[in-house]
Amino acid sequence: VEPISLGLALAGVLTGYISYPRLYCLFAECCSQKQSLSRDALQKDLDSKLFGQHLAKKVILNAVSGFISNPKPKKPLTLSLHGWTGTGKNFVSKIIAENIYEGGLNSDYVHLFVATLHFPHVSNITLYKDQLQSWIRGNVSACARSIFIFDEMDKMHAGLIDAIKPYLDYYDNLDGVSYQKAIFVFLSNAGAERITDVALDFWRSGKQREEIKLRDMEHALSVSAFNNKNTVLQ
Ligand SMILES: Nc1ncnc2c1ncn2[C@@H]1O[C@H](COP(=O)(O)OP(=O)(O)OP(=O)(O)O)[C@@H](O)[C@H]1O
After folding, report:
1. Which atom of ligand 1 is found nearest the CA of 83?
2. CA of 97 relative to ligand 1 center, distance in Å
3. Between the CA atoms of 96, 186, 122 and 223, what dihedral angle is there, to the nearest 10 degrees?
4. Considering only CA atoms, which residue is closest to atom 6 of ligand 1?
5. C-alpha radius of gyration, the chain, whole number
6. 170-216 pLDDT, tens per residue?
7. Which residues does ligand 1 sit against, CB inside 6 Å?
8. Which of 5, 46, 57, 229 is deepest in the core (most CB within 10 A)?
9. Confidence at 30, pLDDT banded by 50, 70, 90
10. Structure pTM?
11. Pick from 102, 100, 120: nearest CA to 185
12. Ligand 1 centroid vs 52 CA: distance in angstroms?
């Protein structure tokens, strides 16, 4: 093969590779790569890895698979996971991320914030607020299906929570950017005592843990949210 023909052929392949997104996405991570999600695979993952959390499993499976399969969601998906330390909130966030992007938490489209690590100084709240908003705006502009996980929400300054709230609403777009395909996951210890109280009441009255319904927890959590300003539930 002549060098010139070989060069032209390679250039042709490369142009095709770069201009044909599906081909490019076979070799590199793409935002559009996972516009669909296998509900069965997510269910299998939740069933085989996450224990003792029948309510979380059901809500997460329905919410995440329903949201991803909706081509035009009216608002971003917002999940708020509550419970004591070590109950699996980060663990389940990882499962969600892995089912949407192969790289899971390491994906360029998954962003994890830890309140005490990323926003430690109350005196810098205005700066954090600007940085956080431009981070969210920039990443959603680059990939509509961006995932933002906020750990330690109960330790997050109320001003920063207010900075995130506009992105969670029913806006078609904010300053030219649509957030309707994004996913926000909030992890918090807030309400953990109330959750434990409900579980203990069920146990004391001889009922199975699996008999606890979401409405039993919703009431407990709404009381707790009312008393706690550091929550997106308010
Ligand atoms: N329900 C669960 N099922 C299976 N494994 C679990 C569960 N809960 C916790 N684990 C295991 O414990 C580890 C620690 O849990 P994880 O970090 O998810 O807790 P957390 O609720 O996020 O705690 P924190 O509030 O301290 O951040 C997980 O990586 C996982 O291996």
Report:
1. 21
2. 15
3. -160
4. 88
5. 21
6. 988 888 999 999 999 999 998 888 889 989 999 999 999 989 988 88
7. 50-53, 83, 85-91, 151, 187, 189
8. 46
9. confident
10. 0.86
11. 100
12. 11
Question: Which residue has the CA at smallest separation from atom 31 of ligand 1?
Answer: 91
Orientation angle between helical segments 39-49 and 89-100, nearest 10 degrees:
150
Contact call for residues 67 and 31 (beta carbons, < 8 A): no
Tell me the one-letter amino acid at 106.
N
The protein residue with its alpha carbon nearest to ligand 1, atom 16, reads: 88
Instruction: Give the strand pairing for 147-151 and 183-188.
Output: parallel
Distance 178 CA to ligand 1 centre (A): 33
Least confident stretch, 67-71, 116-120, 204-208, 226-230: 226-230
* Whole-angstrom distance, CA of residue 71 vs CA of residue 181: 9
Place of tokens 């957030």: 179
Q: Is 189 exposed, middle or buried (0-12, 13-18, 19+ CB in 10 A)?
A: middle
Residue nearest atom 28 of ligand 1, based on CA coordinates:
91
